[in-house]
Design a protein that fits this description.
With 295 residues, the chain is mostly helical. The chain has one domain. The chain has eleven helices and no strands. It has helices at residues 2-8, 16-29, 43-54, 63-94, 103-115, 121-142, 147-158, 186-219, 236-243, 250-272, 284-288. It is elongated, with a radius of gyration of 23 Å.
Length: 295
């Protein structure tokens, strides 16, 4: 961990050259999908890499990795909630022995637990962010030059149970799913299904619009190689975005992710930084340390 702290110290997420080195190191050596059985990187490093993707502008090309990072951060949040619950239960068991929490410690942990209970707004925000990123990435890919090659793979990654035209239904084993698709409640699984259905409808609507657009320009005698041109007078991307606005506002989405990160950093710091005396956190070192497989 000291090595990682030295690596990121003095480099702000908006420092492009420095963050590219760290981001490359992270994606290749620490949290790629094929290394999901290793211990998760420390929270500060996960948050740092998320901010590298968010700033100065949201890099949608890195959405799959961003989703994995956020899933691991949510795992830390849930671990902290479980630790607080154990600590408060332990405190009750101490009774009047004098070995339990102080009034200030108990008040601090109860405040955090109320703020981060399992069905909290932070869990809901995390799930909303994840699905918004999926749909925004798909929308962005549609008008990209590499869409025909990249889009089918991305769709099946985000919505593996959905059937799209030209793609086979894919049901990966749980260990092969993206982290953000693991261990969902029934309601959360339904939200994924609804987001996938919305994307499927999006493809149908865009396909119909493209056919109509192609027919219109064909009747004017415009050469087919100019249907997707980007000029002052004719722009496929401009027309596409006017007809199909992005499903989420990038500025608001980045702000939501920052709020979520700050909330997780707060609860983690309360356990790691001294809101409660270390000796009063039963088995703290075993509980706060996390492996990706725990998510």
């Amino acid at each position: 961990m000291d090595t990682l702290k030295q690596l990121v110290s003095g480099i702000q997420p908006t420092n492009q050259s420095g963050t590219e080195i760290i981001y490359s190191f992270t994606t290749q050596s620490i949290v790629p999908a094929e290394h999901l059985d290793v211990e998760s990187p420390p929270l500060f490093f996960l948050c740092y890499n998320v901010r590298c993707i968010l700033h100065p502008d949201l890099s949608l090309n890195h959405t799959p990795h961003l989703l994995d990072l956020l899933a691991q951060i949510e795992g830390f949040r849930q671990k902290c909630v479980n630790q607080i619950e154990k600590t408060l239960q332990w405190d009750q068991e101490q009774g009047d022995s004098g070995d339990g929490l102080s009034h200030a410690e108990r008040k601090s942990l109860n405040r955090l637990l109320s703020k981060h209970k399992k069905e909290s707004k932070w869990r809901n925000l995390y799930r909303f962010i994840s699905l918004s990123l999926c749909r925004l990435h798909i929308h962005d890919l549609w008008s990209s030059e590499d869409s025909s090659h990249t889009l089918p793979k991305v769709i099946q990654t985000y919505f593996p149970s959905m059937v799209f035209a030209g793609a086979r239904r894919r049901r990966d084993a749980p260990s092969k799913e993206r982290l953000f698709l693991r261990d969902l409640t029934e309601a959360e699984s339904e939200q994924v299904t609804m987001a996938g259905a919305a994307s499927k409808q999006f493809f149908k609507d865009v396909g119909a619009w493209e056919a109509s657009r192609k027919d219109f320009w064909s009747q004017t005698g415009l050469p087919e190689n100019l249907f997707y041109a980007e000029t002052e007078f004719l722009s496929y991307k401009r027309e596409f975005n006017a007809r199909f606005p992005p499903p989420a506002d990038e500025t608001q989405l980045v702000a939501g992710i920052e709020r979520y990160l700050s909330a997780v950093e707060e609860i983690y710091a309360s356990l790691e930084g001294g809101d409660v005396s270390e000796q009063k956190l039963p088995r703290r070192s075993a509980s706060v340390q996390m492996k990706v497989e725990d998510i």
